[in-house]
Amino acid sequence: MIADALLRASLRLDAATPSPTPTSGADPNDVTPGVWGFVVIFVIAVIVVLLVIDMVRRIRRVRYRAEIAEKLDAEQAEAERRPDDRDDDDRP
After folding, report:
1. Host domain of residue 74
2. pTM, entire model
3. Contacts (Cβ under 8 Å, ≥6 apart) of 70
């Protein structure tokens, strides 16, 4: 008896509740970036690429300078460790 009453009540609720109708969605003009949006994004992308190229160039330059400085320091340390090649006997 209770189950029958619950079934009838649920049927009434289903009949009384309207089903939602699909809408057309959002207006495409509100959700798309448009021509100016694409142009701005393209300009930002070009700027980012140019900045990355510049950064890589600068990093490479600093690395080469560090390698050269390291080689010069090693040569200087080697020269300081070696005794002089001068002969003291040749002096008058």
Report:
1. 49-82
2. 0.53
3. none
